[in-house]
Amino acid sequence: MKPNPYRTERIAFTLLLISTVVIILPVFFIVFIIIQKGFSAISWEFLTSIPKMGMREGGIFPAIVGTLYLVLGTLIFALPLGVFSAIYLTEYAQDNLLTRLIKLAIINLAGVPSVVYGLFGLGIFVIFLKLGASILAGSLTLGVMVLPIIITTSKEALDSVPKSFREVSLSLGVSKWQTIRYSVLPHALPGILTGIILAISRAAGETAPILFTVAAFYLPKLPHSVFDQAMALPYHLYVISTQVPNVEVKIRYGTALVLMMIVLSLNLAAIILRSQFRKRKKW
Predict the structure, then answer these.
(1) Is the distance from CB of 74 to CB of 139 less than 8 angstroms?
(2) Three-class secondary structure of residue 21 per DSSP
(3) What is the rounded CA–CA span in Å between residue 136 and residue 213?
(4) Rounded average pLDDT over 31-59
(5) Three-class DSSP category at 249
(6) Where are the alpha helices (DSSP H) in 39-131?
(7) By the number of CB atoms within 10 A of the CB, which of 91, 125, 220, 268 ranks highest?
(8) Averaged over 231-251, what is the pLDDT?
(9) What's the number of CA atoms in the CB half-sphere (13 Å) around residue 164?
(10) Do 166 and 182 touch, CB atoms closer than 8 A?
(11) pLDDT of residue 242
């Protein structure tokens, strides 16, 4: 008796639906709890003032600014280096043992725990290069951490562009770089922006790397240069949850809610930009 293909399809669809629900429901549950317990803490004073009374009162403005500085610094360092590395590996590098080892190393680096990157940043940027605990050291450390993500996603985006685009451009006498610049990169931008979204999410939410390289327990003023320490929302949340007693629950969840909204806002901006580029695709 032959199996019914429609029945097999229904079973597969049901299993996929159950798997999706199992993944999505806990996420919605976590988000619901954060909003429920943290929304009452959100106010203009909470968002624009500095912490007071040993961080039991006041706001989180220095931590918000520090987080945005770190995300911006991470992208300034990692984005061009990651994209150019992907372009080289995809368009210029020969397919040999060395390049295959490099690609394998990049994939493996994406799975290295963040605390290892924190110790790396402490040893290289803070101590060896004598940058001290600073925004620059923290941004470089986070940049190194997200580089494998940007390189991998950018390379996959470049590989997805049909080879015929390159062949037609080269047949018209256009140089290799002009072909990449005008015929390949515009069509790979949506995939590259996907890597940027993943990089922003990881850089904004990590605690271990900034713990070693930039984060301060408490600062009454904003940083004035890239060589200053800064407060950051992930570390601030860790501190008020584990190190400071008698902090109201709504302040903890309110801090988590602000961090979540910042990450979602940055991701939403990148997603909108990605959708605009996707509309220009011709295939």
Answers:
(1) yes
(2) helix
(3) 9
(4) 87
(5) helix
(6) 44-48, 61-87, 97-109, 114-121
(7) 125
(8) 88
(9) 3
(10) no
(11) 86
pLDDT-derived band at 200 (thresholds 50, 70, 90) equals: confident
Residue 64: CB partners within 8 Å, gap ≥ 6?
Answer: 47, 233, 258, 262
Place of tokens 């019914």: 4
Give the separation between CA 165 and CA 163, rounded to whole angstroms. Answer: 5
> Strand ranges (DSSP E) for 30-147?
51-52, 57-58
Any idea which residue has 């949850």 for tokens?
241
Taking a C-beta distance cutoff of 8 angstroms, is the pair 34, 257 a contact?
A: yes
Residue with structure tokens 């200053």?
A: 228
**What residues have CB less than 8 Å from 153, skipping those under 6 apart?**
191, 192, 194, 195, 198
Residues 6+ away with beta carbon under 8 Å from 106: 148, 151, 152
Residues 268 and 217: their CA atoms lie apart, in Å, by 30
Helices (H) and strands (E) in the chain, counts: 12, 2
- Quick check: helix, strand or coil at residue 215? strand
The length of the chain is 283
Residue 56: name the closest of 204, 262, 255 by CA: 255
Domains recognised in the chain with CATH numbers: 62-278 (1.10.3720.10)
Distance CA 75, CA 150 (A): 10
